[in-house]
Amino acid sequence: MSDFHDAVRGGLSKSELEAVLRQVGDERYHNRHPYHHRMTGGALSKAEMQAWALNRYCYQAVIPRKDAMILARAEDPVFRAAWRKRIEDHDGQDGCSGGIARWLHLATSLGLDAEAVRKEKLALPATRFAVGAYLSFCTNRTLLEAVASSLTEMFSPRIIGERVPAMLARYDYITEDTLAYFRRRPEQALRDAEFALAYVLAHADTAERQQNAINALVFKCDILWAMLDALQHAYGAPGNIPPGAFRPQPG
Question: Whole-prediction pTM value?
Answer without folding.
Answer: 0.95
